[in-house]
């Protein structure tokens, strides 16, 4: 039966109408939201350039020296101060011949979350290709500790935190399908295929304590060790998973955030800093509205384009401080123009009153004195 021309005409016109709407309203569609109560202070942070890209996670050793950062080419670098600069501390793969400072090469690995064991000085590394790894206090080539749990491959080890009393590390495996290089596909596909894993550092046993999570990204342990908080980037939220006490084995939403969260770190006082890799926007809400919409964008755009659009066409930096007990938002710090901080991936507060910020893509870290925002 031939298609009625009256039906065909509107159908054929739909792409044209959509294209016209996008042409006139595209800037509004991708523009990032304004965040109420945000303090615009991150542009005042000091920039410390790196000889590599993507210092995704930061950590300090037993002596308080550092930061140590995980970078795109598979290495962990240590900051030795203005005079010595950055020096190589460790790497996660012996294959170093074709590693790139700008792009991830799977054979070189991609170290992400870093956690020092304060008792031994060992550095535990979540690698987005290999799994959970460890390197001794002297650095060098890291050893693989765990690359599967329950006969399922660890595809995307992301961030962990250590309970030193129990000698265990909790960490996220963000996807059972994609590695780090496809992180935005994980975010857009809408599949709940992430999990949180508990690894006993003495017995070498591992078990899944939570699954069916939508891109569990960062993870941090509470001050009393009773729960861990993991950030589900695709849901703009953090989830509390109880690991001790009468609620052990249960979980609930801990905080709702003004954008997609990346890593989370506990502060010296027991609160949490969460880095927001991109603020919310009409485009991001559209992608999250239904899984098929996100999967459509996966098919029609490159990864670089997805990153550009989810950042509103302009890299920016946002970090959020949460109450360690209630998840209430205590502070929001921002560089909305990206004049200094871009693609914030982690915020790490040290005991000397400094806030260090890493980036998943940019070749720099930033440091801000906490008195800058406390006075505003």
UniProtKB/TrEMBL annotation:
Keywords: Glycoprotein, Membrane, Transmembrane, Transmembrane helix, Vacuole. The chain crosses the membrane at residues 7-26. The gene is LOC104791990. It is found in: Vacuole. It comes from the Eukaryota. Residues 158-246 form the Strictosidine synthase conserved region domain. Gene3D superfamilies: TolB, C-terminal domain. The lineage of its organism: Eukaryota, Viridiplantae, Streptophyta, Embryophyta, Tracheophyta. It holds the Pfam family SSL_N. Belongs to the strictosidine synthase family. This is Protein STRICTOSIDINE SYNTHASE-LIKE 8. It comes from Camelina sativa.
